[in-house]
Amino acid sequence: MTETTGRTIGTRALRAAVEAYWATADIRDWDAFAATLADDVVYELPQTRERIHGKERYLRFNQEYPGDWHVRIERIVADAEGRQAAARTEFTVGPEEMHAIHFFTFDDRGLITGVTDFWPESYEPPAGREHLVERY
Q1: Angle at Cα 46 formed by Cα 42 and Cα 53, nearest 5°?
Q2: d(CA 102, CA 104)
Q3: Closest by alpha carbon to 47, among 105, 113, 114, 100?
Q4: Of 35, 42, 58, nearest in space to 109 by CA
């Protein structure tokens, strides 16, 4: 399978994009993290009913996120059409561990256009990020 076929990105390229997204977030390399995102990326958190529009705001959301969290990818699945991928991750924050599922959509260049995160429990969002998100 080639990495790109016409306007479709190969599954290996999608998997690599998701791996780069998480690896650069985990080490807080925000320039490299931003390089995985389309300018018009949309980030959604159904549990908190929050949505962020645009690379700049989403980048700030991650830069300002509190705590010393770390992520380990457990599994990535990408579709054969080259437009979507899903990942299961394990996050650690100190001694606490939690699992999450993330859905990604991509543009023709393999940049992430959408991320939807599902965490194990609903929660109220922490204060201080109202300037970046809209509630729905």
Answers
A1: 20
A2: 7
A3: 100
A4: 35
Nearest C-alpha neighbor of 106 from the set 96, 118, 95, 114: 114
Q: How far apart are CA 93 and CA 45, in angstroms?
A: 19
CA triple 104-130-57, angle to 5 deg: 45
Buried b / exposed e over 46-65, threshold 16 CB at 10 Å, is eebebebebbebbbbbbeee
Tens of pLDDT, residue by residue over 70-105, are 999 999 999 988 899 999 999 998 898 999 999 999
- Report d(CA 48, CA 5) in Å as an integer: 37
Coil, helix or strand at residue 33: helix
- What tokens were used for 59? 């980048």
Tell me, what DSSP letter sits at residue 74? Answer: E
Asked if 16 and 106 touch (Cβ cutoff 8 Å), the reply is no
The pLDDT tens digits for 9-62 are 788 999 999 999 999 999 999 999 999 999 999 999 998 899 999 999 999 999
Unique residue bearing structure tokens 């949309």: 42
